[in-house]
Design goal:
This protein is α+β, with helices and mostly antiparallel strands. About 35% of the residues lie in helices and about 10% in strands. It has a 3-stranded antiparallel beta sheet with strand order 2-1-3.
């Protein structure tokens, strides 16, 4: 656009000037560049488009985890960022393990004691039944009164001597490995028999490895018992016996 100022200070447009009507009166010609609207600008401002992130692949995720995790492959990683147990945590874990171990061992010991007690009761009843069969054929029980039911140490020779008499009468031989020379009234399990080569005659042992106690005068019903592992005086309330305990 061109602004034209004439001698009488009148502004006219360029169309009039083009026709030569005011050429003699022109004093100043000023050319102004019009301001274009944003639509006509040659280089309009670029619009900011939202950034769309591409999902990472599995390999890229794994690589990111490795690079961001404290590891020995990153020597510059601070040691305080590495995962580790504190002393208090270790002590707490050790204490818990100790408690659990104690409970487990205690429960296992109770199970073993209960199993040994049940086995001893069954063996005492089986020996008593064998003595009754022996009495039915011989009109007497195997006789031995050397061991009284007040003796508390099953490792003494009084226990083993009485047991040897009972064994030879019920099994029919001095040793389990020897063929019987008389009727066999009882067939013991190998774990129930003491078979050391130093003894001339085997004898019956309880689940704790000690000799069963036996006492009978041949006429009265025999007394058969186990001290349940006791080897010293300490009461007979834990004994397993063939007679009812008061």
């Amino acid at each position: 656009m061109i602004d034209i100022t004439t001698s009488n200070s009148t502004n006219v447009n360029e169309s009039l000037f083009a026709f030569g009507n005011l050429r003699s009166e022109v004093m100043v010609i000023t050319m102004n560049t019009p301001t274009l609207s944003p639509f006509h600008q040659k280089n309009p401002p670029k619009k900011a488009f939202p950034t769309v992130s591409r999902p990472k692949s599995k390999a890229e995720n794994q690589e990111s985890k490795i690079l961001n995790s404290p590891s020995s492959i990153h020597p510059l990683t601070p040691r305080c960022l590495s995962a580790a147990f504190t002393l208090i945590e270790l002590l707490a874990v050790i204490t818990i393990i100790g408690i659990l171990a104690g409970l487990t061992l205690g429960a296992a010991g109770a199970v073993r004691r209960h199993g040994a007690t049940s086995t001893a009761k069954a063996e005492v009843a089986a020996l008593q039944a064998a003595c009754d069969r022996y009495f039915a054929d011989n009109n007497s029980y195997p006789s031995n009164t050397s061991t009284a039911p007040t003796a508390v140490n099953p490792t003494t020779t009084t226990y083993t001597g009485a047991g040897q008499v009972l064994f030879s009468k019920l099994v029919g031989s001095a040793k389990l490995s020897v063929a019987p020379t008389s009727k066999r009234y009882f067939e013991p399990k190998p774990s129930m028999v003491y078979t050391n080569a130093t003894v001339s005659t085997n004898y019956f042992i309880d689940p704790w490895g000690y000799a069963y106690g036996y006492n009978s005068d041949g006429t009265n019903a025999p007394l058969i018992w186990s001290t349940s592992g006791q080897t010293t005086s300490g009461g007979t309330n834990k004994w397993i016996t063939s007679w009812p305990k008061m």
